[in-house]
């Protein structure tokens, strides 16, 4: 029997054709390939809640089989709200402001956002991840600078991605990070301890 100590939970995520979620590396425009991660995180959130929570206003295309061309078109709609910029979407507030405007424009008033800054303790972050995933909610995660910049986190520095699951271990919480059309498992403890004063954090969704 599964105990709380070794509990695990993964969201029923989606594919865009053969990709696990969207893949910004496939965008034809270099600005979106290099700086479109914030828009992609918002797109992923919209598709997930449209599929899983019936929030059909969030995504303007069919949800049964998500085609890359339709995903691409949607990402360029979202670019208007979360436009790539020199420093990126480098705060939780910038993401919430831009995505919040999209939610207003599509008249989706039941999806609310809460900023969970990287200044919270690891234990608080662990509880937040478990709570959100257990409530069937993806988590946009912003990682800024990190002391492990030349290791396995290299492609996730100064980057938005989605947390779509967790696995509890005796020492840590492993999180399922979705980006670039695939997923990887990372230590939340390592992600959270960036070694820098300027922190990123997570967006916590609440459905009213």
Task: Spell the H/E element sequence.
Answer: EEEHHHHEHEEEEHE
Strand content: 15-25%
From the N-terminal CA to the C-terminal CA, the straight-line distance is: 34 Å
Give the count of helical stretches: 6
Structural class: alpha+beta
Domain tally: 1
Structure summary, number of beta strands: 9
Helix content: 25-40%
The stretches of 5 or more residues where confidence is low (pLDDT under 50) are none
State Rg.
16 Å
Specify the CATH architecture: Alpha-Beta Complex
The largest pleated sheet is described as: 7 strands, antiparallel
Gross morphology: globular
CATH topology: Cathepsin B, Chain A
- The CATH class designation is Alpha Beta
- Report the mean per-residue pLDDT as an integer: 94
Looking at this protein, list some descriptive labels.
208 residues; alpha+beta; Cathepsin B, Chain A; 7-stranded antiparallel sheet; two-stranded antiparallel ribbon; 9 strands; 32% helix; 24% strand; globular
Structure notes:
This protein has 208 residues and is of the alpha+beta class. The protein has one domain (4-207): Cathepsin B, Chain A. It has 6 helices and 9 strands, in the order βββααααβαββββαβ. It has helices at 30-35, 37-53, 68-79, 92-105, 122-134, 188-192; strands at 8-10, 15-16, 19-20, 111-117, 139-143, 159-168, 173-179, 182-187, 201-207. The strands form 2 sheets. Strands 1, 4, 5, 6, 7, 8 and 9 form a 7-stranded antiparallel sheet that branches. The protein has a two-stranded antiparallel ribbon with strand order 2-3. β2 and β3 form a beta hairpin. α2 packs across α3. The longest helix is centred in the first third of the chain and has 17 residues, at 37-53. The model has no long low-confidence stretch (mean pLDDT 94).
């Amino acid at each position: 029997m599964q105990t709380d100590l070794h509990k695990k939970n993964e969201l029923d995520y989606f594919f865009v054709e053969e990709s696990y979620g969207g893949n910004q590396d496939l965008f034809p425009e270099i600005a979106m390939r290099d700086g479109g991660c914030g828009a992609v995180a918002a797109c992923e959130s919209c598709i997930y809640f449209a599929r899983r929570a019936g929030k059909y206003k969030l995504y303007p295309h069919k949800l049964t089989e998500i085609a890359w061309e339709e995903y691409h078109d949607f990402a360029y709609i979202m670019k208007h709200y979360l436009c790539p910029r020199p420093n990126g979407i480098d705060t939780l507030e910038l993401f919430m402001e831009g995505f919040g405007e999209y939610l207003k424009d599509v008249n989706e008033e039941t999806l609310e956002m809460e900023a969970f800054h990287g200044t919270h303790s690891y234990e608080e972050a662990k509880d937040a991840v478990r709570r959100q995933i257990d409530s069937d909610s993806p988590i946009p995660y912003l990682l800024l600078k990190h002391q492990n910049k030349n290791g396995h986190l290299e492609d996730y520095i100064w980057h938005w991605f989605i947390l779509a699951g967790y696995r509890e271990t005796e020492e840590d919480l492993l999180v399922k990070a979705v980006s670039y059309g695939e997923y990887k498992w990372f230590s939340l403890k390592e992600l959270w301890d960036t070694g820098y004063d300027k922190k990123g954090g997570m967006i916590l969704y609440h459905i009213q």
